[in-house]
Design brief:
This protein is α+β, with helices and mostly antiparallel strands. It is built from three helices and four strands; from the N terminus they run E-H-E-H-E-E-H. The chain has a four-stranded mixed sheet.
């Protein structure tokens, strides 16, 4: 599974990456984490609010930082 965190590299983006990694590890998922900070690439996903999370190229949400427990539903 490819988990992509879309954002400019702010503290919220880092926290989202941390929470997503934690959720994937707790679920026992084999994953690759990619942080996308290039605004042109972020816009290619159609994201207007960051941070955002994409799983295997599909945006699951944007504009918030859910806790690891909440992220599990996006990763299953």
């Amino acid at each position: 599974m490819k988990i992509q965190v879309l954002g400019t590299g702010c503290s919220k983006c880092d926290k989202l990456a941390e929470n997503a990694s934690q959720a994937a590890r707790e679920l026992g998922i084999d994953f690759e984490l990619e942080k996308i900070t290039d605004l042109n690439r972020i816009m290619e996903f159609g994201v207007m609010l960051t941070p955002a999370l994409a799983v295997d190229g599909a945006v699951k949400f944007s504009g918030k930082v859910p806790a690891a427990e909440e992220l599990k539903k996006f990763l299953q």
